[in-house]
Amino acid sequence: MNKFSLHLLFIIVALGLGGCQQNQTNESQNLTEDSTAIDTIQPIIEEEEAETPAAADMVFNDFIDEFINKKKFQLSRVQFPLSRITDGTEQIIAQKDWTYDPIYKGEDYYTMIFDGTELYNNREDSVPRKFTVERIDLNKGRVKQYLFNKDKGLWKLVGINEHFFKDNTNGEFYDFYAKFSSDEEYQRTHILSAFTFKTYDIETGEYIEGTLEPEQWQEVCPELPTGIITNFVSGEINPKSIKRTFTICSSSTEMNTTLEFRHWGGKWTLISLEQ
């Protein structure tokens, strides 16, 4: 191990970065239960809600926060009749049959996955007008997608699609991540021999960057989401891209962790970690 790596690990320990942990997920929670909650017909409870800010439609994160927390606002932002497809079978949902869906309300984190292309560029039409919120069941290999489009300045839910990983554009990566997040030995065999590590030194206010070896992974591995996770997809994922940027975002703070993966030699490999 070089001197930089030793210094880097000393700072990591000083900052209190723990070893890799797995989220304690309630095994009884699954996508089927999510579906049942929506299917159960019950009246929308009339309640006082704070006025929705005009800026809610400017940024999707602001909109989705309103959508999952305010029942009347959610009802007003569903495009009825709503198409819901489960394993290729379509069901049409009328407004009278809609039940408030909290989606991921109350969860401590969500993830964002990009395929390596820039989210924004200088073209006028580059601002995303489509977002997909996915509920990914890593144990059952299923994905439930909430499809949102922005039309005439307003974000609306325009469809729901539930299917197995094999029918998802990002399914191969989800299969890989399900194993990577839960198996330490599998992690070690899917990490670059000298992966990049970047962290923030609170004492100096500076970022520190260097390389670490797979044997040092457990010293810096973040808490990886397992079980059922919520993932945001902006636009469309390019299935031919060999890059995946996996960002774990805190719902309550600005603390994010980003893992970079590349598909080399027939397998996905971690090439960098930034905390």
Number of domains: 1
Q: What profile does the largest beta sheet have?
A: 12 strands, mixed
Low-confidence stretches: 1-29, 35-48, 118-125
SSE string, helices as H and strands as E: HHHHEEEEEEHHEEHEEEE
- What is the terminal-to-terminal distance? 21 Å
Descriptors:
7 helices, 275 residues, alpha+beta, 36% strand, globular, 12 strands
Report on this structure.
This protein is of the alpha+beta class and 275 residues long. It has one domain (1-18, 54-119, 127-275). Helices cover 20% and strands 36% of the residues. It has helices at 3-14, 31-39, 60-69, 71-76, 171-180, 184-188, 217-220; strands at 78-86, 89-93, 109-114, 130-137, 142-151, 154-164, 191-201, 206-212, 228-234, 243-250, 256-264, 267-274. β1 (78-86) and β2 form a beta hairpin. The protein is globular and about 55 Å long. It starts with a helix and ends with a strand.
List the topology elements.
Blueprint lengths: L2 H12 L16 H9 L20 H10 L1 H6 L1 E9 L2 E5 L15 E6 L15 E8 L4 E10 L2 E11 L6 H10 L3 H5 L2 E11 L4 E7 L4 H4 L7 E7 L8 E8 L5 E9 L2 E8 L1
Parallel strand pairs: 1-6, 3-9, 7-12
Antiparallel strand pairs: 1-2, 3-10, 4-5, 4-9, 5-6, 7-8, 10-11, 11-12
